Amino acid sequence: MQKQTLLYTGKAKSVYETDNPDYLILHFRNDASAFNGEKIAKLDRKGKVNNRFNSFIMGKLAEAGIKTHFEKQLSEDEVLVKRLTMIPVECVVRNYSAGGLMKRLGLEEGLALVPPTFELFYKDDKLGDPMLSESTAVALGYATQAQLDEMKALTYQVNEVLSKIFDEAGLMLVDFKLEFGLFKDGIVLGDEFSPDGCRLWDKETKKKLDKDRFRQGLGDVVEGYEEVARRIGVPLE
Fold it and tell me: Taking the model in full, what pTM does it have?
């Protein structure tokens, strides 16, 4: 399958069309951004690490019976995926308090949430990805109620599968966001799963090993990603 026209350039990935209209190529770049593009940097090895991390996770989810857009890794920083019609809603699960939830409700960081919470956000950088109710998403035509129900069930299933993987590696899956799309009218997990889109802490020390290292200026951002990757068995070489 041949890479053709550049279709879209996101914050950390570039999307290319292929000679097959049903498939795209994602290029994971070394770019890092936070606060809707207010903080930007290039981090050596980041694209390679996130690509391999995502490929590993997508494989684990497929083994669990979860349909994803992932087809195969093409190179150290490119992957072949199904072309989805994306639903403009982000699904967020929180197992512990952090980030926006902590700030909204004045919670201490790291409070266990039992059961885990589920939230929706409208995917729009210009608006700051505002929080969204299910009824508003349906009323505005972003998704049907049936689609939202399936996305919610799949998000919780992803949480169950990945929480176990990270827990066995001595890590806490604090929270994460997922994006879904339609492929031949079926709901499919899209985008990526990497430390860019989740929070991961060491269970004993609570050391942050995710994008908060970049957001909060903690340093060793890619090194934190690599530590997580090694601990769960992602082949980095």
Answer: 0.96
